[in-house]
Amino acid sequence: MNWKWIFAGVNKGHLSEYFEGVGIKTVSTVDAELKSSNQHEIGTTVPMRKFLGTDKARFEVKYIWLSDEQETISDVGWATHYNTREGKPRSAEYRLYYPSNSVTEIMSAEDTLFLAIRPDKTILFIVVPKDSTIQNQLLWLFGLEQQPGKSFIVQDFGEDRDSKLDFVSRFILDEIGIEFEDPDANSLDAIIERFGLVFPKTADFSALARLTLPEIDAKDGADAALLAWLNHEEAMFRRLEKKIVSGRISEGFIDGDSVDVDGFIKYSLGVQNRRKSRMGHSFENQLRAVFDAFELRYDRQVVTENGKKPDFIFPGEKEYFDSSFNVEYLSMLAAKSSCKDRWPQILPEAERISQKHLVTLEPGISVPQTTMMQTANVQLIVPSDIQSSYTSEQQSWLWSVEDFLNILYQRQST
């Protein structure tokens, strides 16, 4: 089976196109223990049987281990759901029985398990560390506010729980190996046809995203505008990428009389690296458009102490290096579409400015990470629509993009 799925469901662009439901629980010591012959068993609840059924059934399963620091580990296998008390007078007791594999060997008590059921009745068996960023992101993606316990919490993606997927959600889907199929593909084709089969400069792509969303104005809401531009640009890029990459793959990877495996791997890595690099540049470009809309003064990539280059210095390079300019009116901003554990890299940037500002698109950064940011005097900025992925305590400390703009406006108006 190809585990990079694309479905053409009725609710295109919505979560229900990719999942029927999901169950989440904390892995117990009993769950993590091996049974006979390297087999595992995990008890299921009544709500889970809506998706798994009550008849004995064998499912195809993709096992995935995700963490904030390590590379993704995955394995393909099976699992059997059955009633351990079938034919007995006692009440039914259902378990999911599955073999040991590279993911379950890592799984331990207190990890978090997501059992995500697909429309074709295959299962994603996703294991993540407790209280990790990736756990928070999956909870947010699946619309689960309750923290996992020892029994399954179940989410059914019916009409009242079916959310439309934005580009941040799509990045989380990427993490678990699901390819998003844009429902607006035809209209996107009309926009990007001018580029043929060549990737344009990111700045040109960013400008086109804004131009083709004339109804969006940063002054009507900077946070919403930023996400709308980024969402549209990402959709345009993925559509163009699909056309270009499909064409290259159809040509094949042949070296003489042999299959060019090294050439294929090199090309694949190039595709992945372009995605990551382009998103970072896109993020900066759309932030610039927001700052320009509010007529704020700034310079980009100013070379400060020890050759460090913060993404943005406000009001600019001249003021930063003017020792007579009041340091209280200086600001620096680092922009990272995804923080992971790389945020400490900004600490040596712009040494003259003690408080660092960091804007990110990453949902649900773990509490330990944001606590370390606070201790290091780093103010995290997250667009308002993404802040719901953080705890209420974290949200009380987070800034929105508009919060940051207000501070800049005050400092530049003095």
Which CATH class of the largest domain applies here?
Answer: Mainly Beta
CATH architecture of the largest domain: Beta Barrel
Please list the strands of the largest sheet in the order they lie side by side.
2-5-4-3-7-6-1-8
Label the structural class.
alpha+beta
Low-confidence stretches: 1-10
Structural write-up:
By secondary structure, this protein is an alpha+beta fold. The chain has three domains: 15-175, At1g16640 B3 domain; 185-289; 299-413, 3-Layer(aba) Sandwich (Restriction Endonuclease), CATH 3.40.91. Helix content is 33%, strand content 19%. The chain contains twelve helices and 15 strands. It has helices spanning 29-32, 49-52, 133-141, 167-175, 185-192, 202-211, 222-251, 261-293, 317-320, 367-375, 392-395, 401-413, and strands at 21-26, 39-43, 57-65, 73-83, 94-99, 112-117, 123-128, 153-156, 254-255, 258-259, 299-300, 312-314, 331-336, 356-360, 378-381. The strands form three sheets. An eight-stranded mixed β-sheet has the order 2-5-4-3-7-6-1-8. A five-stranded mixed β-sheet has the order 11-12-13-14-15. Helix 10 (367-375) links the parallel strand 14 and strand 15 (378-381). Helix 5 (185-192) packs across helix 7 and helix 6 packs across helix 8. The longest helix is centred in the last third of the chain and has 33 residues, at 261-293. The radius of gyration is 24 Å and the shape is globular. Mean pLDDT is 88; it is low at 1-10.
